[in-house]
Amino acid sequence: QVQLEESGGGLVQAGGSLRLSCAASGRTFSTYSMGWFRQAPGKERELGARISWTYTTTYYADSMKGRFTISRDNAQNTVYLQINSLTPEDTAVYYCHHNGGTQTYWGQGTQVTVSS
Q1: Which is nearest to 89 in space by CA: 72, 64, 70?
Q2: Structure-derived torsion over alpha carbons of residues 19, 83, 38, 53, reported in degrees to the nearest 10
Q3: Buried-most residue among 5, 29, 49, 73 (CB within 10 A)?
Q4: Tens of pLDDT along 16-49?
Q5: Is 75 helix (H, G, I), strand (E, B) or coil?
Q6: What distance lies between CA 68 and its chain's CA centroid?
Q7: Alpha-carbon torsion 81, 51, 73, 95, what sign?
Q8: Do the beta carbons of residue 22 and residue 70 sit within 8 Å?
Q9: Which phi and psi angles does 57 have, rounded to 5°?
Q10: Which helix (H) or strand (E) holds 45?
Q11: Would the CA dihedral through 56, 31, 81, 64 be positive or negative?
């Protein structure tokens, strides 16, 4: 089992920045990659960014290229998502995702609300 604890969401004005954190605990030795999905109101959950746990490989969805940066701290088993120049379209619940190869886990989600 892997437990994921997210933090860093909140209410921010357009143009502002946030850094989301997701700390993993439990059977983290099996981590293959971690990432961030988001689900906007009335829309499906979509993958935003992912980072390999062994290599420096990252992936960004088109909607997250440029303003989003995913990073990790292996020693702390933590993945981060830096979001700059926030717009109201970034309003969503952001979910941390852990890929252990044979099993995947989700965080409870953290709300990001961007006011115009």
Answers
A1: 64
A2: -70
A3: 49
A4: 999 999 999 988 877 889 999 999 999 999 999 9
A5: helix
A6: 10
A7: positive
A8: no
A9: -70, 130
A10: none
A11: positive
